[in-house]
TrEMBL record:
Record GO cellular component, one term: cytosol
Xref: InterPro entries: AA_adenyl_dom (IPR010071), AB_hydrolase_fold (IPR029058), ACP-like_sf (IPR036736), AMP-bd_C (IPR025110), AMP-bd_C_sf (IPR045851), AMP-binding (IPR020459), AMP-binding_CS (IPR020845), AMP-dep_synth/lig_dom (IPR000873)
Biological processes annotated in GO: amino acid activation for nonribosomal peptide biosynthetic process; antibiotic biosynthetic process; lipid biosynthetic process; secondary metabolite biosynthetic process
SMART domains: PKS_PP (SM00823)
Entry keywords, A to Z: Antibiotic biosynthesis, Phosphopantetheine, Phosphoprotein
Family, similarity comment: Belongs to the ATP-dependent AMP-binding enzyme family.
GO molecular function, one term: catalytic activity
Domain of life of the organism encoding this protein: Bacteria
Protein name (record): Carrier domain-containing protein
Length: 976
């Protein structure tokens, strides 16, 4: 229960306090009335507290007993250590009252008394938990030694005087609860300060005291209603932790604030896209022109318009245009399946669809379509549209995954958005900032990116996916464009930070959210970027993007908190009955405030289920997130898990039931269960199904891809004969078999045919975590996605010294296709650069001259063997008479001074010899000259172009060019 950094060892601290006499007397009275010992009562109270801390009805802790059973003759006269630790199990039943629990506990303890001499080690050995059976103990001192010694020192007439005695005891457990009897019960918490901090222990003290009071005052209370939240702590949570009110323009709309900003800084840059830069004045004018066109074509106030677009200025112009026309926009990412787009347009009753220029072929819409072209809009009528809107009018509808099998539309108002970005405690954006758009336009983080920048006079940079998914290119873009504010999903952050933890060093603020964070990666980035404000951010779409934030100012070993509520938001931890829970007790995280959405479109039943009346602010509402969390003593929140089956994949929230519903619509599927499992540190979707054995995983993926976005398509498929069931007849998801990680027996595998295909296959196996792969497998059909593609591109660069944009993999998704593309790139490099570095590091350089094919890539295997020993450079054959001079110049550029080591293979041996002679004539020292399988100059080169083993390493499309090079080299060889 500590958020401290993990430290080795044991540093003992004690917290000692007394229960006042009235409470002590009441506890004794309650115990006597129910025929139980005071120790039993205290153990029962502690057990109920532990149950609430751990969300279970069954807990075990240790208790120390004297071990002196009365059945042992003469036991009172024996000297020795008889004490023993035994496990105490507190299990409660539904509808049981506290007094019923008390009586049952006393009965069970009396029945167990004859066995209290059983060694703890033997008990642990016979349980599944072994040494983890108990992790702390309770000691009830029947004879408080220290107090008796102190009392005897005060009795001057005592025949035995004891003084200057110090007693110190320490168990091997990190927490011990010791209770000493007396007119006032004395309680001591003895704990390891490296594990528990003082704030937690102080909190437990207050709660334990309240729990004892509740038990003494209300023994008839049902366990389900038992609470140890006192008035002080309730006030702390409701008032102090949620003191978030700030002034902001709550009576203004998004367009009100944007127009104010455009008038204030008309010439300041609003949008940057490649070489295009659009000022606030231009953005205002172009969105005016599109808004006017919308109205002229029949769009009316409070209607919905879809926007089908990718990352582009056109998307931003379209958003502002719809808002200016008094409507709500529906963001539709161009990568969404057409069927999903059609469903959203139909459910929202969108009157118009704005389509980004170039995406017209993706638009299947029976209503009015308008093409958004930033260039064309410069020439249109840009007179402002004067349509009055209210802060309570809808701004947009954002779809999230739905448990019924269809997505649900979240309705967000203007006020929701304005409260998110205006005068809030988590951001201080200004005109000096430069934001960057990273998320899909259908992902709610884009709301913060767009309006967090444009309503504060900042610049918003829009980049393509290939740049964002390349750590080197993205890092360079951040630095070159002086980006100051960035939001990343946890999954993308992890991929980038693993490659380059320092790539964020130029930022002022980095927000990361969507899933639980990796402490190791966050720590690494914090150290690499010392001036960076690094935030863990949390929030559901239903509360307008962000609800809480936490700035990470030190290293963490355990879970990183999600922080405190943002301005004008409130957060509470409630139980299933909507009651406030104490600090440290897990419950459902519920959010309130001005960010709470209007509800779900056309889903009144679901809206009423999760949008509830505010428990503390009459007239307001809260949203029940379905997330399990708890308060920390300092007012920060810690996320624990989901309560329901909802999942998060790459920062996007999904309902497995939606995927299951789609699967059951498919021919040949009788039953389906979708689960989330960790594989190689990544959350991945698994599908178990009962159905047609003739359909392949590829068939299922292709069918799902027509109706679901890529992040909702499972990576793993397991066919089962029947589903395991629970006692009540439901699918037992915990019993679904985990597929063995062994090669699948496939008959259709095409093995790599050349060196490049073999290297690509090895990289794909490593990244995708598979053992078998065919060169015609589609990367994205066998478990790949954009973040996996990033890993492939990074590995190619740093292992093979091949730098390609991520688009290559999207455009050429099979090994065979990508190998062809890479070889074409290598051939162009041969004509332009003449040399390729084949590994990363080495104590010295080795310059290699090519065989008859004329390409330095043939030394790749040698380079891998010599990595760390020699940096291997492979020369391509230069088809110019000045080739010798060019080779010498190239080597001296790489290594200005000797000695030099040259290697020539086959025809390259003759070439290397000529180069070595030229170098010595220039006074350059060649220390080693290595030739392999070369021929004397007088002999013609034995070339048989149709039967060359090296040709087997090349893709078919490349061989023609190789043969031409061979002919050139052969002629040179004959002329030597």
């Amino acid at each position: 229960m500590s958020d401290k950094e993990t430290k080795e060892g044991y540093h003992r601290e004690d917290l000692i306090f007394s229960l006042n006499k009235p409470l002590t007397d009441k506890l004794k009275e309650t115990a006597k009335q129910h025929g139980v010992t005071l120790a039993t009562l205290i153990q029962a109270v502690w057990g109920v507290m532990l149950q609430q801390y751990n969300r279970t009805d069954d807990v075990v802790f240790g208790a120390v007993v004297s071990g002196r059973l009365s059945e042992i003759p003469g036991v009172e006269q024996m000297i020795g250590l008889f004490i023993n630790t035994i496990p105490i199990r507190i299990k409660t039943h539904q509808d049981e009252t506290f007094q019923e629990l008390l009586i049952r506990c006393q009965k069970e303890m009396l029945e167990a008394e004859p066995f209290t001499c059983q060694p703890l080690f033997d008990i642990q050995a016979n349980t599944a938990l072994k040494q983890e059976l108990i992790d702390h103990i309770i000691v009830f001192e029947n004879y408080p030694l220290q107090q008796k010694i102190a009392d005897s020192a005060d009795q001057t007439d005592s025949p035995l005087q004891i003084d200057q005695v110090q007693v110190s005891e320490q168990s091997g457990y990190n927490f011990n609860l010791v209770v000493a009897p007396g007119e006032e019960l004395v309680v001591k918490f003895s704990y390891n300060a490296f594990v528990y901090d003082a704030a937690w222990i102080s909190c437990i003290k207050r709660q334990f005291t309240q729990a004892l009071s509740t038990a003494a005052q209300h023994p008839h209370m049902p366990i389900a209603d038992f609470s140890f939240l006192d008035a002080t702590e309730k006030e702390q949570i409701v008032t102090q932790f949620n003191n978030t009110k700030t002034e902001y323009p709550k009576y203004h709309t998004i367009i009100d604030l944007f127009r104010e900003q455009a008038e204030k800084t008309p010439d300041h840059t609003a949008l940057v896209y490649g070489n295009m830069s659009i000022s606030y004045k231009e953005l205002d004018k172009r969105s005016n022109a599109l808004a006017r066109e919308l109205i002229q074509k029949g769009f009316r106030k409070n209607e919905t318009a879809g926007i089908l677009a990718a990352h582009s200025p056109e998307f931003m112009i379209s958003v502002l245009a719809v808002l200016k026309a008094g409507g709500a926009y529906l963001p539709l990412d161009a990568e969404l399946p057409p069927e999903r787009v059609s469903f959203m347009l139909e459910e929202t009753q969108a009157k118009m669809l704005i389509v980004q220029k170039g995406l017209e072929q993706n638009a299947a819409f029976s209503g009015t379509c308008i093409i958004s072209d930033a260039q064309r809009l410069m020439e249109e009528n840009d007179i402002p549209i004067n349509i009055s809107s209210s802060p309570d009018d809808l701004a947009y509808i954002m779809y999230t995954s739905g448990s019924t099998g269809r997505p649900k539309g979240v309705m967000i108002t203007n006020r929701n958005v304005v409260s998110l970005v205006s005068n809030s405690n988590y951001t201080s954006a200004s005109g000096d900032d430069r934001f960057i758009m990273t998320g899909s336009i259908s992902f709610d983080a884009v709301t913060f990116e767009m309006f967090g920048s444009l309503l504060h006079g900042a610049s918003l940079h829009i980049i393509d996916k290939s740049t964002m998914l390349s750590p080197d290119r993205f890092g360079a873009y951040l630095l070159e464009n002086d980006i100051t504010v960035l939001f990343l999903t946890t999954a993308l952050f992890n991929q980038l930070a693993q490659v380059r933890a320092d790539m964020f060093r130029g930022l002022h603020t980095l927000y990361v959210g969507g899933e639980a964070l990796s402490p190791a990666l966050m720590n690494a980035v914090r150290h690499a970027c010392s001036d960076l404000a690094l935030h863990n951010i949390y929030g559901p779409t239903e509360n307008t993007t962000f609800s809480t934030f936490f700035e990470m100012k030190r290293d963490y070993a355990g879970p990183i908190p999600i922080g405190k509520p943002i301005s004008n938001s409130t957060t509470y931890i409630l139980d299933t009955k909507g009651r406030l829970l104490p600090i440290g007790v897990p419950g459902e995280l519920c959010v309130g405030g001005d960010g709470v959405a209007k509800g779900y479109l056309n889903r009144e039943d679901l809206t009423n289920a999760v949008f509830s009346p505010h428990p503390f602010l009459p007239g307001e509402r809260i949203y029940r997130t379905g997330d399990l969390a708890r308060w920390l003593p300092d007012g920060n929140l810690e996320y624990i898990s989901r309560i329901d089956r909802q999942m998060k994949i790459r920062g996007k929230r999904i309902e497995p039931a939606e995927i299951e519903a789609r699967l059951l619509e498919m021919e040949g599927v009788q039953e389906a269960a979708v689960t989330l499992r960790e594989k190689d540190g990544e959350a991945q979707l698994y599908t178990h199904y009962v159905g047609d054995h003739k359909k392949t995983d590829t068939d299922f993926r292709a069918d799902l891809a027509r109706v679901l976005p890529d992040y909702m398509i499972p990576q793993h498929w397991v066919r089962v004969e029947r589903m395991p069931l629970t006692g009540n007849g439901k699918i037992d998801r915990s019993a679904l078999p985990i597929p063995e990680n062994k090669p699948a027996k496939r008959q259709d595998i095409i093995l790599p045919r050349n060196l490049v295909e073999e290297e690509l296959a090895n990289i794909w196996k490593q990244v995708l975590g598979v053992n078998t792969i065919s060169i015609d497998d589609d990367f994205f059909a066998i478990g790949g996605h954009s973040l996996k593609a990033l890993q492939v591109i990074h590995t190619l660069k740093h292992q093979q010294n091949i730098d390609i944009p991520i688009d290559f993999l999207f455009e050429h998704p099979t090994i065979a296709q990508l190998a062809e593309k890479l070889y074409s790139k290598q051939l162009r490099a041969a004509d332009e650069q003449h040399v390729i570095k084949l590994n990363q590091h080495g104590a010295q350089n080795l310059f290699c001259f090519p065989p008859i094919s004329g390409f330095g890539i043939y030394f790749k295997d040698l380079a891998l063997l010599l990595n760390e020993k020699a940096a291997v450079y492979g020369f391509h054959f230069i088809e110019q008479d000045t080739r010798i001079e060019q080779y010498v110049n190239c080597m001296t550029d790489i290594q200005p001074e000797g000695p030099y080591v040259l290697l020539g293979y086959s025809a390259g041996g003759n070439l290397a010899f000529e180069v070595a002679q030229a170098m010595e004539r220039k006074g350059l020292e060649v220390s080693d000259f290595i030739i392999v399988d070369a021929y004397l100059k007088e002999q013609p080169l034995p070339i048989d172009a149709g039967n060359d083993e090296s040709a087997a390493y090349l893709p078919e499309a490349v061989r023609e060019k190789v043969m031409k090079k061979k002919e050139t080299i052969r002629n040179i060889g004959h002329n030597c």
